[in-house]
Write a structure and sequence with these properties.
- By secondary structure, the protein is an alpha+beta fold.
- The protein is built from eight helices and nine strands.
- The strands form two sheets. The protein has a six-stranded antiparallel β-sheet. Strands 7-9-8 form a three-stranded antiparallel β-sheet.
- A hairpin with a 5-residue loop joins strand 1 and strand 2.
- Helix 1 packs antiparallel against helix 8.
């Protein structure tokens, strides 16, 4: 008969202590891995938010530049039409009677308005609504104002005749191109003693078409990529600047977004992916070593 001494309490507690240590280590490593994954995920989300904000800010900046340029062009056109309409010579040679020699041959209101001021349309409409004088693309023409503005020409002329020493501007779409139309009643200016003519005043109208060539030049000047008019349906040019038109509709300009945030993502996401892989590999090696 053999005698087996009882197992030491310390020896019996050793495996239990090892199990507790192993469980604690595994739990700590899981928590550490989750925290590390959460940090990487948070960094990725922050980069995505920053990229989206950069894209939005760049688009808003382009839209603001285009709107400011459009408004500035309107103001310039209003100044030009007032200078010509509130001129005693225009009253005498365009309203009281139509003197084409003065207007065209002497180039007072002739091709220079197209060559230098870039007005594709210049019209003089009398108080009966008839277009008495027209210059289209720098050439004398018989085209009436209605050919470009249609039924909206009547409201434009009515509003212009109701002005006193002022001019108005309207946004329109002509031949599928965005355009600005300005109009002012022809008056005697500051000259006194000029003959009167019964009825409403004649109206001087300037038209500026934003042709593809003009929009391309405008884009280069403003650092806006490939601006296009409403007739362009390119799906890649989604940003839009809308303006109220004469008929209650809208005039729209579209352009190609710069997308600086997308370029940032293309640069940072591969780096973040490489960091995540490297971090995962290091974490696995550390976990194995700790468990061992």
């Amino acid at each position: 008969m053999t005698f087996d001494p009882p197992e030491s309490p310390s020896r019996r507690s050793a495996p239990a202590a090892e199990d507790r240590t192993l469980r604690s280590t595994r739990r700590s490593l899981r928590i550490f891995s989750l925290l590390l994954s959460g940090v990487l995920l948070l960094v990725v989300l922050m980069v995505l938010v920053i990229a989206q904000r950069q894209n939005r800010d760049a688009t808003d900046h382009d839209r603001q530049r285009l709107r400011q340029a459009w408004d500035a062009r309107q103001e310039t056109m209003l100044t030009d039409v007032r200078d010509y309409a509130f001129w005693s010579e225009a009253w005498r040679n365009l309203h009281l009677t139509l003197n084409k020699r003065w207007a065209w041959d002497e180039e007072n209101i002739g091709p220079d308005l197209y060559n230098e001021y870039h007005y594709e349309g210049v019209f003089v409409v009398d108080n009966a609504g008839r277009t008495r004088y027209a210059v289209i693309n720098g050439k004398l023409a018989d085209l009436p104002l209605e050919a470009w503005l249609g039924a909206h020409s009547a409201s434009l002329l009515r509003d212009a005749r109701g002005l006193q020493n002022a001019a108005l501007a309207r946004n329109v779409v002509i031949e599928q191109q965005p355009a600005i139309v300005v109009a002012a009643p022809i008056s005697r200016g500051k000259a006194a003693g000029l003959s009167e003519r019964p009825g409403a005043p004649s109206v001087l109208v300037f038209v500026n078409l934003f042709t593809p060539a003009k929009l391309e030049a405008l884009g280069k000047m403003l650092d806006v990529l490939a601006p296009r008019g409403t007739a362009d349906n390119d799906a890649r040019q989604r940003p839009t600047m809308t303006l109220e038109a004469i008929d209650g509709g809208t005039v729209a300009l579209r352009w190609q977004p710069k997308m600086p945030g997308t370029r940032l993502l293309m640069l940072l996401l591969p780096i973040l992916a490489a960091v995540a892989l490297l971090t995962g590999w290091i974490t696995r090696r550390v976990s194995r070593h700790a468990l061992h």
